[in-house]
Amino acid sequence: MITRNVEVIVPPKEPHYVGDGFRVHNFIPSAYRLDMKRMDPFIMMDYNSKFYFPPSETPRGVGVHPHRGFETVTIAYKGKVAHHDSSGGGGIIAEGDVQWMTAASGVLHKEYHEENFSKQGGDFQMVQLWVNLPATYKMSKPKYQGISHENMEKVALPDNSGIVEVIAGSYQNAKGSATTFSPLHLLNARLNKSGKANFDFPKSYNTALLVIEGSIKINGTEQVPTDHFALFENNGTAFNIEALENAVVLILSGEPLNEPIATHGPFVMNTKQEIIQAIDDFNNGKFGTLND
Amino acid sequence: MKQPFFNYLKDKAMVKAEHLPVLIALVQEKEFKKGALLLSEGQVCQHAFFIEKGLTRLYSIDEENREHVVQFAPENGFISDRESLYFGKPSVFFIEALEDTSAILFNQDFIKTASEISPEFRNYNEYLLQNHIRQLQNRIHLLIGADAKKRYLNFIQLYPSLTLRVPQWMIASYLGITPESLSRIRKELVTRKSK
Q: Which terminus has fewer CB within 10 Å in chain B: N or C?
């Protein structure tokens, strides 16, 4: 077991709005060293750090937009989001829940603050992660996986350290309920003060964490404050984290797909030709219909 | 306001939020009353137009005073005389507002600057150019190789909202047929449907 060192700790960038309901710091792919190739298969991460939205009669959010070629993973830490899509799907993502949407061949999609949450206002905190799909699955049928906090696989850590929630992949012997198209792990560590957790992922897996609450120390040396992102080197497999105060940490680790990437906004394919096709299909209404 | 063009850049061209205000600041918005000319024969076309609201057509007038409609551009459409705008030649066309129209005006400098600022814009502009060539190719193909009925059906598909907004003689001109022939085709299609 060789220690995996921290490559860089990335502070959150200036936030920007996605629609009017998501005030996000982008980490992947715009931050230094966090481009799509380096983070492969994770191609985008927007983080809405904890932010108070005052009450609003009209729910804030982002209107109808398309996706093709990848999966969107929405992890709700505070607040509630309602979503609808062109395949007739929809639902509410509440605190602690995760929604795993395989956009694949294409969906139209919209996301808004859930009606009651919007009326009451409150703290809102979410992560949206885009996971790239292997070429073979880019044009497969879209699907959803809703993972409620209640049904999420949880591993209790020794010495009252806290728990690790397994969203996808595995932790120790626990397997996450989300199925993925390439090997990856997505975990939430909820640690009590001084709580410790160990992780071990294959060396080639691109690995990172985001501190959602509190602050932590990695491998006993590197301190990471709230809302900061840590990228690991691919020089080892194992690392540990220790909570300096009660902490919530999102951990991601995935085997790189090592395939060519061609992008245009919410279309992520392998070749330029496929991007042109996506634009054409979108303009010709082949993503279906969804009203604003 | 420039809201429709802003939305077009955001939702179709997928221009990133941080680039949108920069690009929007580079274009001009102008209103045209119904019947106004956006371009006249003999002028050098200075702008391409994005139609935010209303309807326009590109047409020429021949020696016998007959009008020939080359293109319509409703909301979210682009219209210009490329030979005049890009190659600097005096135009052989007119562009007319068929309804009260609000348009965004931009020139080649805008395309160049916007392409440097936004890779998404550059990609989409290339797509639009290729798409325009495709449409022109299809139009030539239909004009030389298809009967009038097929051309009319294609027109309905391409411009679904226009059959009620444009006088029949203009549609006939676009199709390269007489208004009488168009009237006959429409009658035939209606009779066939009602059978």
A: C
| Gap between the Cα atoms of B103 and B38, Å rounded | 10
Residue A256 Cα, gap to closest chain B Cα (Å): 25
pLDDT string in tens for chain A (292-residue length):
899 999 999 999 999 999 899 999 999 999 999 999 999 999 999 999 999 999 999 999 999 999 999 999 999 999 999 999 888 888 899 999 999 999 999 999 999 999 999 999 999 999 999 999 999 999 999 999 999 999 999 999 999 999 999 999 999 999 999 999 999 999 999 999 999 999 999 999 999 999 999 999 999 999 999 999 999 999 999 999 999 999 999 999 999 999 999 999 999 999 999 999 999 999 988 888 888 7
Q: Testing the interface with A: which of B16, B78, B123, B132 to mutate, by most A Cβ within 10 A?
A: B123
H/E stretch holding B153? helix B148-158
> Residue B17 belongs to what domain range?
3-117
Look up residue A271 and give its amino acid.
Answer: T
Residue of A279, A280, A283, A284 to mutate, interface with B, max B Cβ within 10 Å? A279
- Nearest CA-CA distance, residue A122 and chain B, Å: 25
Two structure tokens written together for A160: 């009252």
Q: Is residue A262 part of a domain?
A: no
Number of domains chain B contains: 1
Residue A44 lies in a domain: yes
CATH number where B46 lies? 2.60.120.10
CA distances from B91 to B39, B59, B60, B85, B94 (A): 8, 11, 10, 9, 8
Which residue among B12, B18, B120 sits closest to A16, beta carbon to beta carbon? B18
CATH number of the domain encompassing residue A227 = 2.60.120.10
